[in-house]
């Protein structure tokens, strides 16, 4: 089972906080992990995590980018996509940041569990 760790926890372990572009670049450089960005406007079932990564090779982990309250700016979204980071939906509701992190983690853990 892959490790699930929040970006805040990871940054604190590294004793630094990362800006959005650096976080995206670091995620994209990690070729052994799936890289996803939770985007509230992805309301189509094709953007559910199970559909995006269906049939893909096993991953060692996952980098999850969750935006601030109010969502990502269009420039941020396009930058992440340009690096190959996939956008996903966490469902029909707009969630608070802390709730979105928990929901995304549960969906990721369930995805990895179902790969076995």
Model description:
This protein is an alpha/beta fold. It has one domain (7-115): SPOUT methyltransferase, trefoil knot domain (Alpha/beta knot, 3-Layer(aba) Sandwich). 42% of the residues lie in helices and 13% in strands. The chain contains 5 helices and 3 strands. It has helices at 7-13, 20-29, 49-52, 74-82, 97-115; strands at residues 33-38, 61-66, 86-88. It has a 3-stranded parallel sheet with strand order 2-1-3, sandwiched between helices. The longest helix is centred in the last third of the chain and has 19 residues, at 97-115. The protein is globular. The termini are close together. The mean pLDDT is 77.
Task: Briefly characterize the structure.
This protein is of the alpha/beta class and 116 residues long. It is 42% helix and 13% strand.
CATH homologous superfamily title: SPOUT methyltransferase, trefoil knot domain
Instruction: Report the CATH architecture.
Output: 3-Layer(aba) Sandwich
Silhouette = globular
Sheet-strand content, in percent, reads: 5-15%
Q: Quote the CATH topology.
A: Alpha/beta knot
Element-by-element helix/strand order: HHEHEHEH
Walk across the major sheet and give the strand order. Answer: 2-1-3
Average pLDDT across residues? 77
Helix content: 40-55%
Number of domains: 1
The tally of beta strands, per DSSP, is 3
Helix- and strand-based class? alpha/beta
Largest beta-sheet characterization:
3 strands, parallel
Distance between the termini: 10 Å
Gyration radius from CA atoms, angstroms = 13 Å
Any low-confidence stretches, pLDDT <50, length ≥5? none
CATH class: Alpha Beta
DSSP helix count? Answer: 5
Organism: Endomicrobium trichonymphae
Catalytic activity: uridine(1498) in 16S rRNA + S-adenosyl-L-methionine = N(3)-methyluridine(1498) in 16S rRNA + S-adenosyl-L-homocysteine + H(+)
Protein name: 16S rRNA (uracil(1498)-N(3))-methyltransferase
Family: Belongs to the RNA methyltransferase RsmE family.
């Amino acid at each position: 089972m892959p490790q699930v760790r929040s970006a805040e926890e990871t940054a604190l372990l590294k004793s630094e906080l990362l800006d959005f572009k650096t976080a995206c670049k670091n995620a994209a450089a990690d070729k052994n992990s799936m890289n996803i960005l939770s985007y509230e406007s992805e309301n189509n079932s094709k953007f559910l995590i199970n559909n995006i990564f269906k049939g893909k090779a096993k991953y060692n982990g996952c980098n999850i980018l969750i935006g601030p309250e109010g969502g990502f700016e269009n420039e941020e979204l396009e930058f992440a996509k340009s690096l190959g980071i996939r956008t996903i939906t966490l469902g029909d509701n707009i969630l608070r940041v802390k709730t979105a992190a928990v929901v995304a983690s549960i969906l990721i853990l369930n995805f990895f569990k179902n790969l076995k």
